[in-house]
Amino acid sequence: MKKISVIIAAYNAQQYLDQTMVSILNQSMDLGDYEVIIVDDGSTDETPDILRRYEKDYDAVHVISKENGGPSSARNLGLDHASGEYIYFLDADDIVDTHALEYLYNTLKTNDADLVIAKYDYFDQYGTIEIEELDDLVLKKDINILDSDILRTFALWNKMFSSRIIKEHHIRFAPVSYSEDGVFLMEYIFYCRKITGLDHVVLHYRRFYGDNSNAITASISSQKIRDYVEAHRLIIDGVANRISGMFPQYDSFEKLMEENGDIHQYMNFLCRKELQILIDRFYAAFWKISNEDRRIIAEEIRRRLSMTDIDNITQLTERFPFMPLPTVHVEVAEVLEHALYTMVLYGDKSDKDSFLSCLKTLCNQNLLYYKIIIPVKMEVVVKEEGLEQENIIYIDCGTEPELFNKALSGATTPYIMFCSSRMLYAKNILRIAFNQLSLSRPDFAVYSVLYNSFGISQPTSLSRLFKTSISGGLRYGDHLHLDGIFGNKIFLVSFFRERLPDFDFNSENGIERVFRQGAYKIYENCSIYFDGSDDEYTEYVTTPKTKEYIESTLAEGPDDLNCQDLKINKETTALKLITLEKESREYYLLDKFLKYSKKRIINRVLFFSIRADNKLEGNAKALYPYIKGRKKICASRLPHDEKTVEKMIKLIMTSKVIITDDYVKYLRYFPLRPEQRVIQLWHACGVFKMFGRRGTNLSLPIDMATHAQYNLVAVSSDSIRTVYADAFDIDLKKVKALGSPRTDTFFDPKYKKKVCGRVFRAHPEFMNKSIIVYAPTFRDMGCDRSEFHPELDFDLLSKELGENKELIICPHPIMKNKILEKEYSNIHVMRDFSTNDYMLISDKLITDYSSVIFEYALLNKPIAFFCYDLDIYNRGFYLRYPDDLPGEVYTNQTELMSFINGSDSFAGSDRRELFIEKYMSACDGHSCERIAKIVNTYMGR
Amino acid sequence: MIEDSITYFSVRNRNLNQDLRVVHDALRSYLPDMNVQYYINNEVSDNQYITNMLRASRREFCQYVHHVICMDASVPLSFPNDDGSSVRIFMAALYDYLFEAALGYANDPQKPKKSTYIGCNYILPGSPFASRVLKTAYNMKNSDITTLDQICLPLSWDIAQEDKRKKVRKRFEYYYPGMKDKKILVIVLADPKDIKAGLKDNPLIGFPLKQLLDMVKDEYFVITTSDLLAANAANLSSKYNSSFEVSKNRFTMLDLLYIADVMVTNESRYATGVAPVNKPVYVLGHEDNMFLRYMKKFYPGMVISDFNDILGVDFHADNNSEEQKLFCKEFSYGVDEEPMKKIASLFM
Fold it and tell me: Whole-model pTM?
């Protein structure tokens, strides 16, 4: 008998199935101790082929094929074939931790339990999100069956079940397509003698990008609604029956609920869990479902509300404040009568596509209390597109101002939004706005407009400048031109009625009037996206009247550290700094800061680094010789002992200029003095992996505090300034395309010759050979960072390289293993010279996810991207693979050999030039001079 | 500096709060050509150095302000010297510091006076109490500060407007249909941060909420904003939903002043907030503050020290007690004269 049967239901799972299979077949538990039963639920993609391959290669894998019938029937079939002592359910797109089966099994055995509950986390292309809601539960050795923490997730993949119980009680998945796991779990749980916890993350749950977008409402069907309601009827009735059986002394379950506080809480938790999803996913999709479905949902909400207590209703009200619970409206007329928002959108046939794109986002709002007003001339188009829904109202009009005027005069809702077809409105904008507008009640709310660039959504330059231009106080002035549109605002209808009764959208000064008359508030956390580039947005907002002001505002400021643009804004900076609580481990830092904040500032430039001990690297090292006068290096790897901390704080608080190329944690807590300046050189060129607040492993407030006191950030090209401004959340004006100091040497023929000579003298065997440098970066997934095991057959590679080619592997400094198991005459792991030095003698570069490509691009030589693990690794890049790369992507050794042996496939194309222009245009061999001039001038040298 | 501009100040994270909004909206009608700007920041930080940085930022801003309307006592000291052309108004909402000053001077009449308001040239006390305290505890006489006596605060006037009260009540009734045809008993309590965070025990555990609801449910709808009080609502069945609600995200606390028929609170702002409309007030005595001390000294009959005593209150009474009548008189001037008209006239 096998110890464990792993059951996977797979339906059209080709995209991630390999990763799931690799993770379950590479467990720390011996493969002979468990079986993997995969039920192919009638897939129509390549899933059956992939599964057959695994079945052929692994004895432990058993594939069962059936007609499509949903996950319940697939898992039931898996259970019918399972022979293991324990059962583990896995989804076909998730990744199991290497030790999952071993730890789950051992925990069950050690504790003689029938169910073990462990931790899990989420991951997507941007990183991993820890789940803390089970933290307390998994620490318990003996979990009470009625512990409401068990209800926090019905998921099966963080649990392991006993086959004996499943067989004895013939527990099977109910024929429902939603919450079937909940029905199974809640039936199983009451047969358990003992439930135990395991404090280990056993599963990485894949979150799909767009989970919060329109996917959920789009996938709602009548059957799903009925299944959800039925599943919860089974769960709640089943639980009530089982609990009643545990307390025979009570005449009725109602009496038990009334008199037993724990049972009362447990049932309330269960009801609230159901209600939250009922409201959030189903009732919120009111305009997309039929009358009958609405009635079923409303009835279920009412039924469960009548079972819950005041505390529960209060919590639901807090989550859904826009809903007048306990009233649940079903009739369209009722909902429209109580609508909170009117969203007005103009369009005609000339901009049909953008009109429809925008309308789709309006139709998908996850709040039902709103109306959409559009021109009657678009009615046919809307119906053809299948967007018709009962909250769309058509008005006869010829122009946008006419539509807006008519919608405003007839508005019966408290709020109105004059939308723009150039914008896309996130599905939760009305919900978020409700909370903001209810409590602070401005006449109108202004939302930052975002655009997509470099793989992220970031505020447009005008929105960023608008927000910072008014920090400290809202003044009326030309800066209002930076926000001269209606499409990013939500207005109180009464504001127009009471204070601008003669308002006319035909007039040119409409925006100016609303700004002058209204009390407004600016928010950043609602997602309104412009459908074009940053420049196009600027063009969209600019009018002939505002052109001059906007152009002058967007122009780069002077390179003078005394100019206002480069000074920090006291108010925005102070609000970002971290307040050290008395209980905090770092509270003692405050005394040190205070002590040195009273010392005289010395006319000294401080080079601060955590990258190496007592020396500088990269950009800082390159710049250092160019700085005149008194200067000091303060470099120490983390963690810092108390003595180092004191020294660093002293130097930071008393140096006039601080130059760094990394995080300076000491800048998070204490304001510098007005005459001090901080210059960030950053340690990478271009933009590759997300950094700053977009790619931090710190909490967001701590990350933002770390970068809050920068006066100047030097970057390698003009086009990436917005990325740095966004990542550090600082003014665009403070980010300047001054170039990367360390690239200056790439423009110095003498230097290049010198380095090549040095390397060849040390390694004469490389002379007259074709040199291919392989510069991989480290991996985080599934192994220790210091280990690197590329998917390469080095024996074969060596053979194919022949006598005239040398492969030089330059490992990332963090990699400590040998990499090569034996010696080769033409493959070498080199750590004596820097990667940059070897790049200079090379003919080609192979890399994967390393920012060395930016420097190498300056050499205009072929680059290959050997990304055999792109699916797993591909997360958190500004660069889009493969579109933005200056070379081809190869995923296996055979493909890679075509690069090694072939000619430069990019020769003659302008891909590398365009790449340099986009990411490295400011690197011209004079970066050090430019940056040093700014610093030296400020220091009076 | 823009000569024809009014700056509204709020530095305690209140946004453009309701008091200032009432003035702002009215002055928009009375002074349509006047420019307006706001300084709205939260300057409250546990780190004194961050607070100092924010205050420095405010001082910089103040170099460019002309006319000013503010409510935070810390603001007037930021103003630069006036050349006589500006109007700088301070509105004295009844926060705890005024009760501290009142008690301080009651105990020690020789106490040195503070110069908090010398940056202003007008003060709107809004109540006989505030007028008395400001004149007693602060340097006013030797400066050019004019006290605008006999005029209520703008929010007090607004709260007393029947059409406004109806409008606000209608909004509440939409979300809480159980309110219809009932009087409203409002319980507003400041929940201290450390208790909310679970660092201290909840002092309101034991409040007889169920008994209170059972006692008043036919006549009153009870509404509260307090999480700590709501902890007593656990296990109350959904049938109480027609007579009780915890109001959090939909309305501001000051909105409750418009609908309260009876106010139970431990905060001066809310207790005195219903004085202009002569509604009965009861002060819960579970958390020590200057307002409570003042109440115990001068209005002991309105203080509920033992939670269970609330069950002894006669919520059916049609008239305020003598003490309550005196309280209303002390804490608000009459609402006959619209204060915004007076404020607007200062700028003309």
Answer: 0.86
Q: Tens of pLDDT along A337-370?
A: 999 999 999 999 899 999 999 999 999 999 999 9
Alpha-carbon distance of A798 to A805, in angstroms, equals 9
- Find how far residue A634's CA is from the centre of its chain: 34
Burial call A11-37: b when 16+ CB within 10 Å, e when fewer: bbbbebbebbbebbbebebeeebbbbb
Give residue for tokens 């059986």: A245
The residues, any chain, with a CB within 8 Å of residue A443's CB and separated by 6 or more, are A491, A492, A495, A499, A514, A517, A518, A519, A520
Query: Does B56 contact A593 at a Cβ distance shorter than 8 Å?
Result: no
User: What DSSP letter does each residue of A621-639 carry, written as one string?
Assistant: HHHGGG--SSEEEEE-PSS
DSSP A820-889: -SS--SSEEE--SS-HHHHHHH-SEEEESS-THHHHHHHTT--EEEE-TTHHHH--SBSSPTTTT-SSEE
Name the residue in chain B with its Cα closest to that of A257: B235
**Contact call for B56 and A311, based on CB within 8 A:** no
A461-469 vs A534-541: helix crossing angle, rounded to 10: 60
pLDDT score recorded for residue A215: 36
Q: Residues of A numbered 280-319 whose beta carbons fall under 8 angstroms of chain B's beta carbons: which are they? A: 305-311, 313-314, 317-318
Strand ranges (E), chain B: 5-10, 35-40, 67-70, 88-91, 122-124, 146-147, 183-188, 220-224, 244-246, 262-265, 281-284, 303-304
Phi-psi region of A91 (alpha: psi -120 to 50; beta: other; left: phi over 0): beta
Catalytic residue (one of A40, A94, A97, A181): A181
Q: How far apart are CA A187 and CA A181, in angstroms?
A: 10
**Contact: B15, A442; criterion CB under 8 Å:** yes
Of A646-660, B5-19, B65-79, B227-241, which one has max mean pLDDT?
A646-660
pLDDT at A828 over 90: yes
Cβ-defined contacts of A16-19 (< 8 Å, 24+): A16/A92, A16/A93, A16/A206, A16/A871, A17/A47, A17/A50, A17/A51, A17/A92, A17/A93, A18/A50, A18/A871, A19/A93, A19/A95, A19/A871, A19/A872
Tell me the H-state helices in B63-205: 96-107, 128-137, 154-159, 162-175, 193-196
**Contact in structure between B31 and B69 (CB atoms under 8 Å):** no
pLDDT, position A781: 56
Nearest-by-CA chain B residue for A322: B250
Cβ distance A577 to B38 less than 8 Å, yes or no, reads: no
Nearest to A574 by CA among A665, A459, A704: A704
- What ipTM did this prediction achieve? 0.88
For residue A333, the distance in angstroms to the closest alpha carbon of chain B comes to 16
Higher pLDDT, B321 or A570: B321
β-pairing, B67-70 with B35-40?
unpaired
Which distant-in-sequence residues (6+ apart) come within 8 Å of A93 by Cβ? Answer: A13, A15, A16, A17, A19, A20, A206
Lowest mean per-residue pLDDT among A374-378, A554-558, A609-613, A618-622: A554-558
Spatial contact of A84 and A48, defined as CB atoms under 8 Å apart: no
Instruction: Please write the tens of the pLDDT for every residue from A23-77.
Output: 999 999 999 999 999 999 999 999 999 999 999 999 999 999 999 999 999 999 9
**A832 part of the active site:** no
Strand A159-162 relative to strand A86-91, pairing: antiparallel
Packing angle, helices A547-554 and A461-469, rounded to 10: 90
d(CA A145, CA A162): 16
Confidence of residue B199 (pLDDT cuts 50, 70, 90): low
Helix A222-246 to helix A291-307 angle, to the nearest 10 degrees? 20
Size of interface A-B (CB pairs under 8 A): 145
